[in-house]
């Protein structure tokens, strides 16, 4: 397996885990990717990782930990807007901002963010 295909496989796994709300396992994959990423991509992976861990903390009713990590994740992703590697980073930041706002009111939302790829081909 080439290095590029390994990275792509890990990226697809991270997306699946995030969108399945398995945030702890997603964190493990993204952390591994973050360590291997070029410097220009590190904040991108770290931002998604922080949002994932923030959602994990939120699921466990640690609202302050969730808010801190989601806030840091949004900050790390802002330079990568509107799209990066096909990911709609603007939408992820908007969804995360809504979660952060709800958490600040003591409410953990029913709907969590997803990793959305608007330019990806659709399959039937």
Describe the structure.
The model is unreliable at 120-124 (pLDDT under 50). The protein is mainly alpha-helical and 124 residues long. The chain has a single domain, classed as Hyaluronidase domain-like, CATH 1.10.3450.10. 67% of the residues lie in helices and 3% in strands. The N and C termini lie far apart (29 Å).
Entry keywords:
single chain; 67% helix; 124 residues; mainly alpha; 5 helices; 2 strands; Hyaluronidase domain-like; disordered C terminus; two-stranded antiparallel ribbon
Give a short account of the largest sheet. Answer: 2 strands, antiparallel
How large is the count of helical segments?
A: 5
CATH superfamily: TTHA0068-like
Derived from helix and strand composition plus strand pairing, the structural class reads mainly alpha
Helix content: 55-70%
Entry summary:
The chain is mainly α and 124 residues long. Helices cover 67% and strands 3% of the residues.
């Amino acid at each position: 397996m080439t290095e590029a295909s390994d990275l792509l496989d890990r990226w697809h796994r991270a997306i699946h885990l995030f969108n399945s709300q398995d945030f702890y396992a997603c964190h493990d994959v993204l952390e591994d990717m973050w360590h291997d990423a070029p410097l220009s991509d590190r904040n991108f992976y770290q931002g998604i990782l922080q949002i994932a861990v923030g959602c994990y903390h939120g699921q466990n009713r640690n609202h302050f930990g969730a808010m801190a990590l989601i806030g840091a994740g949004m900050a790390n992703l802002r330079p990568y807007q509107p799209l990066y590697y096909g990911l709609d980073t603007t939408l992820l930041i908007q969804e995360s901002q809504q979660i952060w706002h709800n958490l600040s009111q003591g409410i953990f939302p029913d709907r969590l963010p997803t990793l959305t790829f608007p330019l990806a081909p659709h399959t039937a």
